[in-house]
Amino acid sequence: MNAPTCPQVEGETGFNKIRGIALGPESPYRSASKIYDSVLHLRPHKVKCCDGDKQANFAWQSDQKKEEYQERSEKRERVHLWATVTMLLQNRTVVMLGLRMCSTHVTKGLILDAARPSSDVSEFRDVFSKAKHIAIITGAGVSAESGVPTFRAANEKWRQWKSQDLATPEAFSRFPSRVWEFYHYRRELALNKKPSAVHLAIAECEARLKKQGRSVVVITQCIDDLHRQAGSRHVLKIHGSLMETRCLTCGHVTMNHKSPICAALKGKGSPDADMPDAQIPVDKLPRCGESDCRGLVRPNVVFFGETLDSHILTKVEKELDTCDLCLVVGTSSIVYPAAMFGPQVASRGIPVAEFNTQTTPKTEYFTYHFQGPCGTTLPPALARHDSEVI
User: Dihedrals φ, ψ of 164, to 5°?
Assistant: First the structure.
């Protein structure tokens, strides 16, 4: 069987493409147990066969045979990888591979709890009062409370392009000026906004519970700086930060709150559909501040199709594994892998509460769902409980 390529995945079409490649009718790797067995036991000199009951020991008779075997082994590993990814996602299990994907598709499958999520605030408050380690997952809806566009629905396009078409490594490589205009526009928007009632409630809750020996961690998809401005100290930014740049030459990451970030971008970035590209020369775009480098820098954010920071993901995984209450706030739950964080916690039997303006593809997994603007629903939910000792 020919080994599959590894296409960039975005949306249902891309996902189905991988699923068709990895788990097609001709594939011998359809069984979940066989996939795990093959992946976990694959070794250079001993390979466990797909039927699970035979092993082949290879004695190298020539360099040619060794090379042929290694080539087959690499192809087999690629098939196993994509089959495993597909199988895990289909079964609604979090895959901490960190590939940023976007999908509006509601996956069908087993539901962890068929009961309708509760909207009983007093019941949630009782659970909240007993929680020792709270993980709060936040999305674009939290920033929207501060007036930052979500870049979905009515705000999906910047000029004639969708944000998913601009926020890619390929777009930055081909059109660095256009992409920098887009991010300059987003930076200026964020720099001129203040933390909302949501940001302030989360920060106040973290500070208050810390005095009681309890903890709050914010796991955010937002790339603005509003959680920090509000006073939150334990923040994991899984998609990076608009206020940081990363050099393409030396890799140096720098915090940057300048407005504009460079002289050439001053007054640029208008989202109007008829606005032409500024076509700023590359040497006039933001450059590295290291004296011996001066290379082109990019926004230190995770573009679609890029992997998330493994160090951040390791910390996120630890927090999700140890929290005893999880809140999912202001996120549409369609961007992966973040969309599966809440369900991952719920699969451990931990209460998960969703705060959003509408239901999401993951609402059915959660214990609680509080519908409405987060700035209205979240602050009273996190307010001091009568049982708290000050």
Answer: -65, -20
The sign of the dihedral angle between the CA atoms of 158, 161, 163, 168 is negative
Query: Encoding tokens for residue 15?
Result: 């996902």
pLDDT of residue 100 exceeding 90, the answer is no
The one-letter code for the residue type at 54 is: K
Which of 80, 199, 239, 369 is an active site residue?
239
Q: Kindly report, residue by residue over 183-223, the tens digit of the pLDDT.
A: 999 999 999 999 999 999 999 999 999 999 999 999 999 99
Pairwise CA distance, residues 348 & 342, whole Å: 10
- pLDDT tens column, 297-345: 999 999 999 999 999 999 999 999 999 999 999 999 998 889 999 999 9
Give the C-alpha separation, 322 to 55, whole Å.
39
| Residue for token pair 């509003």 | 226
Q: Do residues 355 and 378 lie in contact, with contact meaning Cβ atoms separated by under 8 Å?
A: yes
Residue 239 catalytic?
yes
Helix locations, the chain, DSSP H: 11-22, 32-41, 63-90, 121-130, 140-144, 163-166, 169-174, 176-191, 197-210, 226-230, 310-322, 341-346, 374-382
Least confident piece of the model among 27-36, 191-200, 256-265:
27-36
Residues 351, 134: contact at Cβ < 8 Å?
no
Distance from C-alpha of 217 to C-alpha of 275, rounded to nearest angstrom: 41
Q: What percent of the chain has pLDDT over 90?
A: 66
Amino acid, res. 153: A
- Please state the rounded mean pLDDT for residues 370-374: 97
3 and 75 Cβ atoms separated by less than 8 Å: yes
Residue whose pair of structure tokens reads 């369900």 in the numeric block: 343
Please tell me the predicted confidence (pLDDT) of residue 73: 53
User: In sequence order, what are the beta bridge partners of 255?
Assistant: 244
The residues, any chain, with a CB within 8 Å of residue 92's CB and separated by 6 or more, are 107, 109, 110, 112, 340, 343, 365
Q: What average pLDDT score do residues 263-267 get?
A: 97
Does pTM surpass 0.70? yes
CA distances from 164 to 100, 188, 238, 261, 361 (A): 11, 19, 17, 23, 20
Phi-psi region of 383 (alpha: psi -120 to 50; beta: other; left: phi over 0): beta
